[in-house]
């Protein structure tokens, strides 16, 4: 599914950027173009949500590993 129609960036593209270390929408824009700002900007909330979800899961997994 497309996250950013203006830049033709899919969820997979955005997720790859996040997995590679992108922690902000600006980092994602630099990585794959999504949310770059030349278009409508409607995707930025979705990108921020994907980043938050990814890092919340990472923290959760790290906490489980420490307590195990």
UniProtKB/TrEMBL annotation:
Residues 2-52 form the BFD-like [2Fe-2S]-binding domain. InterPro entries: BFD-like_2Fe2S-bd_dom, BFD-like_2Fe2S-bd_dom_sf. It comes from the Bacteria. Pfam families: Fer2_BFD. This is (2Fe-2S)-binding protein.
């Amino acid at each position: 599914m497309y996250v950013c129609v203006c830049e033709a960036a899919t969820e997979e593209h955005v997720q790859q950027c996040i997995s590679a270390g992108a922690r902000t929408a600006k980092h994602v824009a630099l990585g794959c173009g999504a949310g770059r700002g030349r278009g409508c900007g409607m995707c930025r909330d979705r990108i921020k949500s994907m980043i938050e979800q990814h890092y919340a899961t990472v923290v959760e997994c790290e906490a489980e590993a420490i307590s195990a």
